[in-house]
Amino acid sequence: MATPLRVPRPAGIRWAIRGLSILACVGLWQIASTTHANLGIVTFRNVPPPVEVVQSAVALFRSPKLAAHVSSSLWRVFAGYVAAVVIGVILGFAIGRSRAASDLLLPPLELLRPIPAVAWIPLSILIFPSSELSMIYITFIGALFPIVLNTVHGVANVDRRLVASARSLGAGGIAILREVVLPDAAPSIVTGLAIGMGTSWFCLVTAEMISGQFGIGYYTWEAYTLQNYADIIVGMLIIGLLGMGSSWPLTTAGRLLMPWRSPQVAR
Fold this sequence. Notes:
Layout: H1 11-34, H2 50-61, H3 65-97, H4 99-112, H5 117-127, H6 131-156, H7 160-168, H8 173-211, H9 216-225, H10 229-257
Helix pairs in contact: 2-10, 3-4, 3-6, 3-8, 3-9, 5-6, 6-8, 8-9, 8-10, 9-10
């Protein structure tokens, strides 16, 4: 029996559903914070309501501190991320295309990959002459492993029949890499780039909480130490917006640069 064809929802309805889901979350937050809900292991006694968070956000946006914090975090993330993209994609192609490179490079990468970002902070402070470089290094480490592993997965799983067909037609190594391997591995690479961007923000916030003086992570941690609970949530929301805003261009560019890939229609 043939599966019935599902008609995708109009874009307006989809955006309305997404907006309502956010409003529902804010409403539950408002109820839990104003009633000081106690759910046993979770309590909302010290959680500020959305109104206080909005007031703190307005105060921050009117302050010159916001530009300093955001610019510092953006610089650290993108400096580390760009370095991770260049090195990660090169390593991923080498490991995915060469058995010798895989035997030589993959074992140490797999050994270092499970180490959390917090564990790298003391060593990075010892290695680098400034805290700024150490924080950039933390974002680099966070983005490197997702990019490498997804690139390896994409390159290693290229259809061998396509490679053989290209060789039979006289294509050289560079042409095969450019015309066959890269297009086939591109979806996995883009996925790794998007994951790496999100991981960079996670690692940056951890580093800024410990050794930063400016940045959204430092702002969030400072709010906690000063018991400005509304500012904590403001910092968290800004981090989420910056992370989402950084990942969205990557996925959008990936769809535009890969017209041969048929996207799944959201239902």
